[in-house]
Design brief:
Blueprint lengths: L11 E2 L23 H16 L21 E8 L5 E7 L25 H22 L2 H26 L3 E3 L5 E3 L6 H4 L3 E2 L7 E9 L2
Antiparallel strand pairs: 1-3, 2-3, 2-7, 4-5, 4-6
Helix pairs in contact: 2-3
Length: about 220
């Protein structure tokens, strides 16, 4: 937890921001607030990067004649300060970008849904198998098959809860005391959203966020 994010990977320092002295005193609520000027500056820098980068290609629908299906994408920035006092931001995107989850400059996902044999893929395959079995039994519509459906629905619910628990335990938060907690340790989402989700190798002081949508 004491490692510092390499500046050439996930952490992007501001190129030139006259607003660095305006760091807020506490983390801003990301769903109902006026974006901090540093958040806007980070979002503007990321927009410029997306417009000019040529490392990968994704059709956002912003350029005429670009090949491929138009797929909008939501991006987000998180303004941070490193242990050495350097201010910059982390960037992330929702879902897949250009067919993948891993791209330079962007924080990777907590889990990779494309990884073969991952707990998520294995769990989803099992839930799909149970759903197909339930559908087949429902089509029979006999007293015995309906009893089997009820039993399978219980198994499906238990498997779904267990899979959700495994997923939640892959999310790690830092509370105000600097203590690391897994999402699954909290009893409600209300408690969890007051904390900040960070990758395990990013012990940064966090300030403000701003969503950035290309749709």
């Amino acid at each position: 937890m004491n490692q510092i994010v390499p500046s050439d990977k996930f952490f992007t320092p501001f190129r030139d921001s006259p607003l660095l002295h305006l760091l807020p005193e506490k983390f801003t609520y990301p769903y109902k607030y006026t974006p901090h000027p540093l958040s806007k500056s980070a979002a503007a820098e990321l927009q410029e990067y997306l417009h000019h980068q040529n490392e990968w290609e994704h059709n956002f629908g912003l350029k005429n004649g670009q090949e491929g299906k138009v797929v909008g994408k939501m991006f987000g920035v998180l303004v941070v300060k490193t242990a050495q006092g350097q201010v910059g931001y982390l960037a992330a995107f929702s879902g897949k970008l250009a067919g993948g989850y891993h791209h330079a400059r962007f924080v990777p996902p907590v889990y990779d849904a494309l990884a073969e044999g991952s707990f998520l893929n294995s769990g989803m395959k099992e839930l799909t198998r149970i759903n197909n079995e339930i559908k087949a039994l429902e089509e029979r519509s006999t007293e015995e098959s309906l009893h089997q459906v009820a039993a399978l629905q219980k198994v499906r619910r238990e498997n779904s809860i267990a899979l959700q628990g495994l997923l939640f335990n892959h999310y790690h938060f830092l509370n105000q005391a600097g203590e690391e907690k897994a999402y699954g340790q909290f009893s409600s989402i209300t408690q969890a959203v007051t904390l900040l989700l960070v990758p395990e190798s990013v012990p940064l002081q966090n300030y403000c966020t701003m969503p950035l949508n290309t749709t």
